[in-house]
Amino acid sequence: MLENFSEIRVETPVDKIIKQIRALITSGQLASGDRLPAERKLAEKLGVSRSNVREAIQKLEFYGILKTLPQSGTVVAGMGITALEGLITDVLKLEKSDFASLVETRVILEVSAAKIAAERRTQEDIIELKKALVAYEKTIRSGALAVEEDLLFHLKIAEASKNAVLKSLMLIITPDIVNNFIQYKVCDDQSELKAYHQHEQILEHIINKDSEAAAEAMRAHLQEVSAFSKSKNILG
Q: Is residue 85 a contact partner of residue 25, using CB atoms and an 8 Å limit?
């Protein structure tokens, strides 16, 4: 009987913004080359925050559905309605990804990022990584959860890889991972302190340009949350 029920999902403002843009494209009210209103005006009209509008636009830009042109603002990409609608449907499906899929994708991206970062990092990257690690330590020592500081450290590793696409993919899945971490209460004082020491190890391997060790350290770092995400999906 249980299999006859399906999960009830509350749509986020970002989902709703993307759906409105899809409806406007499908109906022909938005055509290839048409310009979207400014973020501020869109946010006021839709009754949402500018950050919601920005996130929706960024996701649609990543998939090539929208593009930002100098002097012209954000416009609809030059492709057919059917292609645009199909792409937007894929973006909305991505929003529904389960926690395990998000973490699995994160592991694939981050193990590669750590390995490449160890090969390509600069002294400036090391400085930024150390700053992110200090911010993470400061937050956990204060007794607060450091989910965002944790992910900032990981994004700095992606930056150090000098692979813009890899960093963009991390930026797309990061908001969903943050939300799931908070929802499932993945982090506590002990796990965050352990994660901090693992961050130190990863950074040490990146500084030493030991790409294989950096990759393995990252894989070990994410092993616990990966196992948790799988159990959460089974229990859910």
A: yes
pTM, full prediction: 0.60
Instruction: Return per-residue pLDDT of the chain as tens, 236 residues.
Output: 555 665 566 678 888 898 888 788 777 888 888 899 999 999 999 999 999 998 888 878 776 778 888 777 888 876 655 555 555 555 555 555 566 777 788 889 999 999 999 999 999 999 999 999 999 999 888 887 777 788 889 889 999 999 988 887 887 776 666 666 655 555 555 677 888 899 999 999 999 999 999 999 999 988 877 776 666 554 44
188-to-78, 97, 140, 184, 231 alpha-carbon distances in Å:
47, 24, 9, 11, 18
Question: Domains in the chain and their CATH numbers?
Answer: 2-95 (1.10.10.10), 99-235 (1.20.120.530)
Nearest CA-CA partner of 84 in 12, 34, 40: 34
Cα angle vertex 102, ends 96, 106, to 5°? 155
